[in-house]
């Protein structure tokens, strides 16, 4: 069941990634980010009282709040890296570091012990993510910009790692209140990014609703991940949930009729193999 939940989380995040990318073509990314987090917050606050067993302690809420800080930091630095025009650096570096760091923390500090097959799947996941997340094409910014973008990507990856590791520490009796607490701190973390660009954040009502809806889907993704982490090993849940970059690639083919570069095809095959190994292990 944990495998299904983690993959459901990846699918939800993939939809958010795809939809957010389309929205950011028409509206300022900061507005999309803020409205998305606000939508997730409203949905989590509305749903949390209805979920059985929702009796969080202060520690559970603190872990959830820290997770939200990771979400906000990851988003801010990911977007900052992308504004430098270094997508071929930022997306794969943030994706791989965002999965590698939680695995290291889980094994070295939290005592997670994956099986041998799961370890093979984890080892296959990193290069698969790199290939899937790396857009095709050459060129790119000058070396100094690429270096700065790589730093942004690593910080974004640390933010994602904090999001996953911290949320998994909330107890199962807390319900989804830790997710709600995380949406509060995520909004507060993203807000400094939005304020300087306030005069340029005009959006149509339709786009604003779409951004809020994507935030709801992102909150659902975190709920699925939280349930998956409680059902099994955190490191396995993180790796499976981190395959979300495959979803925008597949949606790009199905919806936008985009072509998939050969390295991405290899990455998708590697991702499928890693999922099979992790599910079996």
UniProtKB/TrEMBL annotation:
Membrane-spanning parts: 6-24, 31-51, 63-82, 89-110, 116-133, 145-168, 174-196, 208-227, 233-256
Domain EamA: start-end pairs: 153-279
A cellular-component GO term for this protein? membrane
Q: Give a Pfam family name.
A: EamA
Provide this UniProt record's keywords sorted from A to Z. Membrane, Transmembrane, Transmembrane helix
Instruction: Name the family.
Output: Belongs to the EamA transporter family.
What is the name of this protein? EamA family transporter
Source species of the chain: Streptomonospora mangrovi
């Amino acid at each position: 069941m944990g495998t299904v939940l983690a993959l459901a989380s990846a699918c939800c995040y993939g939809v958010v990634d795809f939809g957010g990318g389309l929205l950011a073509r028409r509206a300022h990314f900061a507005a999309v980010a803020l409205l998305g987090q606000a939508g997730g917050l409203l949905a989590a606050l509305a749903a949390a009282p209805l979920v059985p067993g929702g009796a969080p302690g202060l520690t559970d809420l603190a872990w959830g709040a820290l997770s939200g800080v990771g979400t906000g930091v990851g988003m801010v630095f990911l977007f900052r890296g992308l504004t430098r025009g270094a997508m071929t650096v930022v997306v794969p570096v943030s994706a791989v570091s965002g999965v590698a760091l939680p695995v290291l923390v889980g094994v070295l500090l939290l005592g997670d012990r994956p099986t041998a097959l799961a370890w093979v799947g984890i080892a296959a996941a990193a290069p698969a993510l790199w290939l899937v997340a790396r857009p095709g094409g050459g060129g790119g910014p000058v070396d100094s910009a690429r270096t700065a973008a790589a730093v942004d990507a690593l910080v974004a990856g640390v933010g994602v790692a904090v999001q996953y590791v911290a949320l998994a520490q909330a107890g199962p009796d807390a319900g989804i209140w830790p997710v709600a607490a995380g949406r509060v701190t995520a909004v507060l973390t993203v807000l400094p990014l939005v304020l300087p660009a306030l005069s340029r954040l005009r959006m149509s009502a339709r786009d604003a609703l779409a951004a809020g809806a994507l935030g709801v889907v992102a909150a659902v993704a975190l709920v699925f991940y939280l349930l998956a982490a409680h059902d099994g090993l955190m490191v396995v849940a993180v790796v499976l949930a981190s395959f979300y970059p495959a979803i925008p690639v597949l949606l790009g083919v199905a919806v936008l009729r985009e072509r998939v570069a050969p390295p991405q095809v290899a990455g998708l095959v590697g991702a499928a193999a890693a999922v099979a190994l992790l599910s079996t292990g």
